[in-house]
TrEMBL record:
Gene, per the UniProt record: oqxA
InterPro entries referenced in this protein's UniProt entry, alphabetically: MdtA-like_BSH, MdtA-like_HH
Domain Multidrug resistance protein MdtA-like alpha-helical hairpin: 13-82
A biological process from GO: response to antibiotic
Top-level division of the source organism's lineage: Bacteria
Family statement: Belongs to the membrane fusion protein (MFP) (TC 8.A.1) family.
Organism: Klebsiella pneumoniae
Gene3D superfamilies associated with the record: 2.40.50.100, Helix hairpin bin
Cellular component per GO, a single term: plasma membrane
Name of the protein described by the UniProt record: RND multidrug efflux membrane fusion protein
Start and end residues of each Multidrug resistance protein MdtA-like barrel-sandwich hybrid domain: 1-114
Length: 116
């Protein structure tokens, strides 16, 4: 039926995707550091405290990935909401708004008529 200007939502989606890529990179680095300290802690070349910090950072980085993925999903959903479609097939018999109008919640946009 209608399309809402989606430029803001596309930009938000791109930002969320970039944050997800950044989180994945950070997680990869944190996991590599954790794996290195796993080997070194057994030979007492790294303190247990540092080992725990590296393991904790790797777990936190995985949580950051999940949070960033949720932000991408939310941004994609918001972008999808910029296309307003009718739940049934039909024709708009009367358009009560035109391109460029400011529409608020509760406004009647058009009357959908089912053709039999």
């Amino acid at each position: 039926l209608f399309t809402i200007d989606d430029r803001t939502y596309r930009a938000a989606l791109e930002q969320a995707q970039a944050a997800l890529a950044r989180a994945k990179t950070q997680a990869s680095l944190a996991q590599s550091e954790a794996n290195r300290t796993d080997k070194l802690v057994h030979t007492n070349l790294v303190s247990r405290e540092e080992w725990e910090q590296r393991r904790s950072a790797a777990v936190q980085a995985q949580a950051d990935i999940r949070a960033a993925q949720a932000a991408v999903d939310a941004a994609q959903l918001n972008l999808d909401f910029t296309k307003v479609t009718a739940p049934i097939d039909g024709r708009a018999s009367r358009a009560l708004i035109t391109s460029g109008n400011l529409v608020t919640a509760g406004d009647t946009a058009s009357v959908l008529t089912t053709l039999v």
